[in-house]
Amino acid sequence: MHLPQALNALGSLLGQRLSTSKHDLDLHGRSESYFALTPPDAVAYPQTTAEVQQIVRICAEHGVPVTGWGAGTSLEGHALAVQGGLVVDFSQMDKVLEIRAADMDVTVQPGVTREALNQELRATGLFFSVDPGANASLGGMAATGASGTTSVRYGTMRENVLALQVVLADGRVIRTGNQARKSASGYDLTGLMVGSEGTLGLLTELTLRLHGVPEAVSAGVCAFGRIEDAVDAVLDTIQMGIPVARIEFVDAATAAAFNAYAGTSLPECPHLMVEFHGSPEGVAQDSARFGEIAEDHDGLGFQWSTLEEDRRALWAMRHNAYYAILASRPGARALVTDICVPISRLARAVTETQADLAQASIPGPILGHVGDGNFHSILMFDPENPAELAEAKALSHRMVQRALDLGGTATGEHGVGMGKLGYMQREHGAGWDVMTTLKQAMDPQGILNPGKLIRPR
Amino acid sequence: MHLPQALNALGSLLGQRLSTSKHDLDLHGRSESYFALTPPDAVAYPQTTAEVQQIVRICAEHGVPVTGWGAGTSLEGHALAVQGGLVVDFSQMDKVLEIRAADMDVTVQPGVTREALNQELRATGLFFSVDPGANASLGGMAATGASGTTSVRYGTMRENVLALQVVLADGRVIRTGNQARKSASGYDLTGLMVGSEGTLGLLTELTLRLHGVPEAVSAGVCAFGRIEDAVDAVLDTIQMGIPVARIEFVDAATAAAFNAYAGTSLPECPHLMVEFHGSPEGVAQDSARFGEIAEDHDGLGFQWSTLEEDRRALWAMRHNAYYAILASRPGARALVTDICVPISRLARAVTETQADLAQASIPGPILGHVGDGNFHSILMFDPENPAELAEAKALSHRMVQRALDLGGTATGEHGVGMGKLGYMQREHGAGWDVMTTLKQAMDPQGILNPGKLIRPR
Ligand SMILES: Cc1cc2nc3c(=O)[nH]c(=O)nc-3n(C[C@H](O)[C@H](O)[C@H](O)COP(=O)(O)OP(=O)(O)OC[C@H]3O[C@@H](n4cnc5c(N)ncnc54)[C@H](O)[C@@H]3O)c2cc1C
Ligand SMILES: Cc1cc2nc3c(=O)[nH]c(=O)nc-3n(C[C@H](O)[C@H](O)[C@H](O)COP(=O)(O)OP(=O)(O)OC[C@H]3O[C@@H](n4cnc5c(N)ncnc54)[C@H](O)[C@@H]3O)c2cc1C
């Protein structure tokens, strides 16, 4: 890598928007979870696709690694420049370019966050559905294949990205997909890019599917004495085809963390939080049917409401869960697991995980998007205590093994990054070699987010 | 290509299940549409993945092209061995391997047809939703990225294939995806294979998503005086978020063809055919709301029913449309167009197409999955008359140009095959080069369905 030459050329291109200040490097060297500080050599703030193209060309010429950066909220250290080089921060490419309400889609720059997008959409009667807990960037969300609480109804990023503009490793710009709702025209390059974690190209424009704001929404929460009962209620709800828009599980420790963090007074036991979208009669019916299922499984005090303020309070609680849990052990860092299993195996995956955690010396509250078979344990350890980190890793390892044994995946939504690289061989076998082949074909020099996703050289 | 050596080795492997009879070669040299007879050199009928693997290894060793064959119903000559070599017919790999009702998924061999699968699922309360008009194989449907009348509600093959087993060009066998409902673990190889038309690998096992048979179904048909009114009614229905399970358009010529073919008595004008899935109250409400929209657009005599026999008659008519239309011009062959545009452009695409057809000397009835913005014209020409074929091609060409100008795609569901290869450059630009790069990486010898999808060498 010829770093000085590259930085020279990048400086001429970007002026002040190329930074090598310690502050900036440190900001782009940290991650939301437990990975060590890994500052890059420089940070670029492009404003246009043409600039991104120039940046990639310069880096390609000088063999300098290029790693994209959205909002830096990913949980597996994806955006850390582990081989040094340049971080490309998309925060100045934050424009909503075109809202096409009649087609129910929108074109955005990658730095737009999901909250900013929904803010812009307020007047249209439409919304963008994918909602990871953090206020992530849409570019980062596409790059990690993110999902969220509403994916059980509206799908993940895979189902909601219609088209992309991508800068490839050699600086070529391509457009993938189009504005039609479906196409059988060639390989699905859009799908290949979604979840590629910045290793195949930098996303510079995204066309996203929108959904109509439902006429009526009802949301509610139900307590359960035992985790198994809550999970069985989920299974019945999904299998009976009740169209949940959200169905989230939190365990007793999470409920306690909410209470301490936000002054709420949830009973400190497992809960399901649900939401239904439809007509006023439809959501009332769905809520009532869910209530019956919950009762069949000894659910206690299911309450639902169609009032926006009640709903907001409920989901603010859920969306702050990670921070509430972290706050329950001051000074701790977190290793977040993310397994996803076939729904029929969910009860087993959760109860075995629970039993394993009960033996552990560190806390690991469980919560998740159980309608998809996806749940997390937030394993908290003292960063000064290597034995605790080792224990967190061992617990996480057993969870992943369990998920793979049950026909599931190591990561339902957070992605591979650094934390799950060690499971790619077990999960994909020769398929991982194919991923490596694709990467080598598209980025022969290996400059795009090196050290991630494919087999390390 | 060392054909004799390859045939020797294949003969030892397969015995009677390797055929070079003229009858078999001709059967596998014809297509449903207008392409000339193109018999391969031999046809293999494997029964196991291990046999497919051996077949591919032998062909790779001797440089012999390998082209998969499902039910041979594709409309763009996809399965024709245009560079000779071996056709691998999957009809003897036709087992439903495992139905997991609790997980609402199923694993099948590629030769299972969609009708056979739904037959097997009868007792489970579940169904497989994708329904191209023909009784296609599930392997072929995945390979072409097929969709059908219910895709507006349940998605295309892209959304309904969860996992695959694939034999690659060098004989390696990989598994892509898993049984979890979502995964962020690496590149989406399943998505890359869906729609790859047998050019990246042969699909030997598919895990498919199933849906619950709805509690109630209502279906109905409505006549319109003008095509524009019918299309506007579609737009309103989609934009108001009425959850149509099916919404199909047929024009006056198609209605006339139905009547002649099946002795029905539809008014010979444009129609919409719709279906709703849900609770009894829900489908009644949806039907009524659709009825109001239709009336707003001067729809005439909308009738709906929840009786199974009425519904069956309606959809049998729709599913036989292609044959009914062909029968309206005895001896004709068909070139079927397949454009798909953003829904807001649908009215324009349909009316401009209609106007163009009105000037033509050959008939081209229009029908389609309009809820997705996708429609077909069945251009019928006398195979003995080259001027008519030329006219069909010119009409088709203008339709594709129109679709691309309107932000759409040359093919919503039928795929590229031979008929749409000429539009790949215009539709994808440098993206087509990327497809070519991927193909070369995964099949450097170019033995898998050569001559299709990527830039001809
Ligand atoms: C409290 C909390 C809750 C969370 N909940 C969820 C959840 O429910 N579901 C979920 O899926 N995730 C969740 N996450 C994880 C995180 O929010 C997602 O992974 C998110 O998609 C990351 O987006 P980002 O913009 O922060 O990306 P970053 O962290 O900045 O980057 C992520 C990856 O994308 C790449 N990248 C970023 N932008 C681009 C671009 N324009 N082009 C190419 N590559 C790019 C980076 O190189 C990196 O590999 C949560 C995180 C937190 C902190
Ligand atoms: C009357 C009629 C109506 C139709 N309506 C629709 C419609 O509504 N929607 C729609 O999408 N299509 C429609 N089609 C087109 C056709 O049915 C689809 O393209 C279907 O997916 C083809 O499946 P098949 O099994 O016949 O595949 P084939 O025609 O046998 O093969 C298609 C392609 O798939 C490849 N292939 C087949 N099996 C495998 C395998 N196991 N592994 C790898 N590659 C394989 C072949 O090499 C070829 O490239 C219609 C066709 C007809 C005749």
Automatic annotation (TrEMBL), chains A, B:
Cofactor(s) needed: FAD
GO biological process: lactate catabolic process
GO molecular function: D-lactate dehydrogenase (cytochrome) activity; D-lactate dehydrogenase (NAD+) activity; FAD binding
One Pfam match: FAD-oxidase_C
Record keywords: FAD, Flavoprotein, Oxidoreductase, Transit peptide
Family to which the UniProt record says this protein belongs: Belongs to the FAD-binding oxidoreductase/transferase type 4 family.
Name of the protein in its database record: D-lactate dehydrogenase (cytochrome)
Native species: Puniceibacterium antarcticum
Taxonomic lineage: Bacteria, Pseudomonadati, Pseudomonadota, Alphaproteobacteria, Rhodobacterales
